[in-house]
């Protein structure tokens, strides 16, 4: 079992959702996030005073996947999120010890 | 105000229903400027102190209204004493004024003049508050407002507009408040901030406006209300002067907004929303003293010059290190000075008064008079306001504690916060205190 986390540009959310649905993913969690990578943030000007805004708005997508599908899912997300411009984000996966579906108590792959 | 231009009014004026109605509407328009100002300022501060900013303007509607009725109108517009102050016991509590008694030489009742002038008195101290954002005790601000209008605004209004006031007699032109309102408030702001010091984190922490839409809303309300402020200052419209004033208000404001935007595009690379709002206000400020004496083309020049000057002036606080939070000095003082002095250049002589500016063959005479008006009001307001702030600071204290300032003044001073950020759908809600909890009250009933 793997948890795949993607930090991507907010406007790519729909593309990623569609790609995941096409792949057969049943559910996902989306949250708003902010941060920066190597490009840092941007500059805003208020009455001539410049402010550096380091933290750029991003969305964080989390999906649980079976071990054998995880790598492929990462690729699906990466290709849907890619714009080839700076700030496209990151995708990673980490091992998950256990998953339980709250309603039924099913565990592991049955709970996905 | 135009109150002593009695020669243009009819010899024995009678009450004009049209002018009275017009002036009541103008008074209501000017009233709306204060809540407009509250939003203009409120949007420019950070979320954590935005209610306090709104309140510092709004409370002026309470304090100044009551003081105006009690003694302010009498001090500003009562019978002149020594060219510096007025007094008329009939005006105390507005108690001895007949319903149809007319304001000296005009076709509107004294009551209407009193209420129109009241709105000017209300907004002037509110203008100061922008410079003090985020760091002043609300109680200290209330006390300051009450003292300031009494010792500074009421006398200065008398100097400039009261029959017998020394600047009025000198021939200083201030159609609707360049000196009495804007220079007065801007200089006071500078005086107070020199005493109370900078915000915690000034020049280090980001202090971005929390809501530019609120700023635009406020600037729009100010612009709208300003038609009452300026067009109403002729105290009637029998001769079209109020209409000229209306036109000049619009064109100067438009020119100033465009000038500010052009300046910042050249200087900083973007046309900003805050620049558009600020430029508009700078234009409104500058045309206020000048609108009755310049042509519409002159108004464009006044607005454009003020727009650029104010855009340049807002950066001065970073250079000189005084923390004028929302640029009251940069916009109101500089804009007011610009507009008042430009009267000495652009006055055409033929609308509000015969005085001609330098560019219209009037020589330096009017410019000199304008300069006396500008610098006397500036100096008086700056010094007295600084002393007042110093005395309040030494007694009840001007500033909130540093930790309050950092965590936000709204919660500490007003027991409220501007926005509910408690998670998706407001899921995490605050629990009401037991004494006010409806649930607890219901339980009591059951017990009984």
UniProtKB/TrEMBL annotation, chain A:
<protein>
    <recommendedName>
        <fullName>Nitrogen regulatory protein P-II</fullName>
    </recommendedName>
</protein>
<comment type="subunit">
    <text>Homotrimer.</text>
</comment>
<keyword id="KW-0597">Phosphoprotein</keyword>
<keyword id="KW-0804">Transcription</keyword>
<dbReference type="Pfam" id="PF00543">
    <property type="entry name" value="P-II"/>
</dbReference>
<dbReference type="InterPro" id="IPR002187">
    <property type="entry name" value="N-reg_PII"/>
</dbReference>
<dbReference type="InterPro" id="IPR002332">
    <property type="entry name" value="N-reg_PII_urydylation_site"/>
</dbReference>
<dbReference type="InterPro" id="IPR011322">
    <property type="entry name" value="N-reg_PII-like_a/b"/>
</dbReference>
<dbReference type="InterPro" id="IPR015867">
    <property type="entry name" value="N-reg_PII/ATP_PRibTrfase_C"/>
</dbReference>
<keyword id="KW-0547">Nucleotide-binding</keyword>
<keyword id="KW-0805">Transcription regulation</keyword>
